[in-house]
Amino acid sequence: MRTFSMGGIHPPENKISAGKAIEQVPLPAQVAILLNQHSGAPAVPVVQRGDRVKTGQLIAEAAGYISANIHSSVTGKVLKLDEVYDASGYRCQAVIIEVEPADEWTEEVVLNSTLKRDCTLSPEEIIQKIKEAGVVGMGGASFPSHVKLSPPPGTKPEVLIVNAAECEPYLTSDHQLMLEKGMEIIVGTKITMMALKVNRAVIAIENNKPDAITLLERLAIPYSQIDVMPLAVHYPQGGEKQLIEAVLGRHVPSGALPVVTGAIVLNVGSIFANYEAVQKNKPVIDRVVCVTGKSVKKPGNYLCRIGTSVQDLIDFAGGMPDSTAKVISGGPMMGKALINTQVPVTKGTSGVLLMDGNEAHRNEVYNCIRCGDCIEACPMGLEPYLLMSLSELSEWEAMEKECIMNCIECGCCSYVCPSNRPLLDHLRVGKFKVGAIIRGRKNQ
């Protein structure tokens, strides 16, 4: 079974919400739509306090090439532009909208659910529609899709890889999306191939989702250029570089863009969003979020509007269990503990995980015993124990030389450490600091 060659781990899967049909979350009373819910520059608001907005209406424009449009996910009145906490604990600007009980959609959105297979648009027109719709990486990275679909001069994509691995423990939103929107994903894959001008696509799925593999294999039969590839269950299989190696056997050089291998990788949720953008003129105003945890009363996969608070999602899933000690946006490996439950859902919110005290408890930290487990587990070939020591000493230049920017923040090192050392915490700090130094150097 295909997988990547270096490092990785096999944590318990805990796919509690697997097979749960997608449920529509009722409209909340209020949404807070963040303007920085994508990589790059925050979008610039084009509405102001007191404006009435329709569902699907542009409320903030992309501010530069690496940025993304933001649309209203509801119909209602703009109460204010204010700062709210995001999943990382930073206060960021958002458009706060008081929600009306019924949607009034913008005229161009096609609301019927009829599958539209044919697309006669040019590659440039497809990319423009995806850009206008504000599509980003829906797996969590939130990189603007129109930028990925426009690789730099001198590079030529050969294959589209659809990332349907969903390797994070607990998370099931991509899995259920494939089961319920399989044909739309196949058509979205074909449309994205047209945009890239490539003749091959691979939908890569970990083999713990046999029903999704079987379904997509059957749906892809008329599309000879689209292959469905089962992969071994091996975390972090869904990492971009790990996925390219697993599918193509090619390695992304340090500091290089993945496209140098001939591959462009998009999350399966982004592929579905591409379909809706191109075939239905629908911007990204909602997404499927997995709400899960061993004590959650009603774990499931929930379709909710962007800007809905995490608290509203938890309430819909049966409420906050008394045993909850930590609420995480994302999965347990790469997710982030929330500062509060009023944090809004963004385009990149794949899941909300509620952990009890036993799971969330951090054990006592001991000195590093130089066992090398973190080195063996690192899928990027780094030395996490050394990088943590350098981070503690604020040795940012040394961290740069030790390739901290290659870290994908997967958490494998922390997971295997017998001394319970918070390796990932320190690597994240170091990566942030070194990244700022590199950007400052380029701007001089």
Report what the structure shows:
With 444 residues, this protein is α/β, with parallel strands linked by helices. The protein has 4 domains: 28-99, OB fold (Dihydrolipoamide Acetyltransferase, E2P), CATH 2.40.50.100; 123-280, NADH-ubiquinone oxidoreductase 51kDa subunit (Rossmann fold, 3-Layer(aba) Sandwich); 286-360, Ubiquitin-like (UB roll) (Roll), CATH 3.10.20; 373-442, no CATH class. It has 14 helices and 17 strands. It has helices at 123-132, 145-148, 173-180, 182-196, 210-219, 240-248, 268-280, 310-316, 357-360, 373-377, 384-392, 396-401, 412-416, 423-442, and strands at 23-24, 30-34, 44-45, 52-53, 58-61, 70-71, 76-85, 91-99, 159-163, 201-206, 226-231, 263-267, 286-292, 300-305, 324-329, 336-337, 351-356. It has a 6-stranded mixed β-sheet with strand order 1-14-13-17-15-16, with helices on both faces. A 4-stranded antiparallel β-sheet has the order 2-8-7-4, with no helix packed on it. A 4-stranded parallel β-sheet has the order 11-10-9-12, with helices on both faces. Helix 11 (384-392) crosses helix 14. The radius of gyration is 21 Å and the shape is globular. It starts with 22 loop residues before the first strand and ends with a helix.
